[in-house]
């Protein structure tokens, strides 16, 4: 098995979303961990220190925004970039984004290809070796 190109934590309370996103990200070469609520995600973030977190906005046990604020308040996790996925009815204000490390908000439904593209944009350092290997 090839080594992963990075570690991603997916946080969503919808099992089908986790299944599809996990499958696509693993196929793209990432090591993927999952959580179905903000508390478990926070604990995993402390334990794993993922390169990036993809979190749903609306979940039981605290929103994705609550998770982002909590991660940002902890020196050990404040530098982890987050991507927020949300239903079209939910918005994250610019003032809330400033208080977090949320890099981009994607509306559901989103395509896995779009998500992978955004992840590559947020983690360019992880993909330098990948493109160098293709050029060789």
Overall tally of structural domains: 1
Find the count of extended strands (DSSP E, 2+ residues).
Answer: 5
Strand content: 15-25%
CATH class, named Alpha Beta
- What is the second-level CATH architecture? 3-Layer(aba) Sandwich
* Rg over alpha carbons: 14 Å
Average pLDDT across residues? 85
How many H/I helices?
6
Give, in spatial order, the strands making up the sheet with the most strands: 2-1-3-4-5
Helix-strand sequence? EHEHEHEHEHH
User: Can you tell me the residue ranges where pLDDT is under 50 for at least 5 consecutive residues?
Assistant: 128-136
What is the structural class?
alpha/beta
Q: Distance between termini?
A: 21 Å
For the largest beta-sheet, the strand count, sense and barrel status come to: 5 strands, parallel
Say what the CATH topology is. Answer: Rossmann fold
CATH superfamily: Response regulator
Based on Cα principal axes, name the global outline. globular
Oligomer state of the chains in this structure: single chain
Helicity range? 40-55%
Verbal overview:
The chain is an alpha/beta fold and 136 residues long. The protein has a single domain, classed as Rossmann fold. Helix content is 46%, strand content 19%. It is built from six helices and five strands. It has helices at 15-27, 38-48, 64-73, 94-98, 112-122, 124-135, and strands at residues 7-11, 31-35, 52-56, 82-86, 102-107. A five-stranded parallel sheet has the order 2-1-3-4-5, with helices on both faces. α4 links the parallel β4 and β5. α2 runs parallel beside α3. Mean pLDDT is 85; it is low at 128-136.
